[in-house]
Amino acid sequence: MTNSKKIDYKLEHFYPDFDRQKFFDLLTDYKAWTNSELLPDIQIIKPGKDYPLGLGAVRLVLSEEMRIEEEIVGFRSPEYFSYASRNGVMPVNDFLGKIFIEEKDGGVLIKYEGSFKPKNTDTGSSFTEIFKSAQKSAFENLGKTYKTYYKI
Q1: What DSSP character marks residue 91?
Q2: Does 1 score more than 50 pLDDT?
Q3: Where are the alpha helices (DSSP H) in 16-73?
Q4: Does residue 2 register a pLDDT over 60?
Q5: pLDDT, tens only, 51-93
Q6: C-beta of residue 133 within 8 angstroms of C-beta of residue 113
């Protein structure tokens, strides 16, 4: 294992005509994720402060390809949500995802900041592209789920 330098990446996604509070509520509603065909299954291992996916919560994200345990390390409704990987199943170390939610032009702008340390220095750029692609897909699926969930 190599002592790797932290890699940061950013993405943005705009959802026209979405409500920020409703979007945040869906983002942090693990039951809605579990009931969606488009999003991975999320289970709560330890509830968070004041909210099942609130600060300090530990969640298990499950899909066919992954089983990742994450801790919620930031929670400020309706503007900020962040999580960090807690176990070693990720192909990287110290994964952190931050989601900033802004009202913009009658909709919602999501700004995502991810960071990690590759377990092998030669894999940093590959995993950056993999994570960006996965996050972009998650943004698209979250938008579809929002429309179904709120019947718009």
Answers
A1: S
A2: no
A3: 20-27, 30-35
A4: no
A5: 999 999 999 988 777 788 999 999 999 999 999 998 767 778 9
A6: no
Q: Take residue 142 and report the two structure tokens written for it.
A: 């979250």
Q: How many CA atoms lie within 13 A of 9 on its CB side?
A: 19
* Contact predicate 42/147, CB 8 Å: no
The pTM of this model reads 0.90
Q: What is the dihedral of CA 104, 95, 24, 129, to 10 degrees?
A: 50
**Can the peptide bond before residue 52 be classed as cis, meaning omega within 30 degrees of 0?**
no
> Is 80 exposed, middle or buried, given 0-12, 13-18 or 19+ CB atoms closer than 10 A?
middle
Residue 131 in contact with residue 113, Cβ under 8 Å?
A: no
Residue 64: its H or E element: none
Least trusted range by pLDDT, from 17-21, 83-87, 92-96, 111-115: 83-87
pLDDT: is 82 or 119 the higher one? 82
Tokens of 36: 């969606």
Quick one: which H or E segment has residue 6? Answer: none
Question: What count of other Cβ atoms lies within 10 Å of the Cβ of residue 87?
Answer: 10
68's tokens? 């990742």
Structure tokens at 74: 């930031």
Strand partners for 108: 15, 103
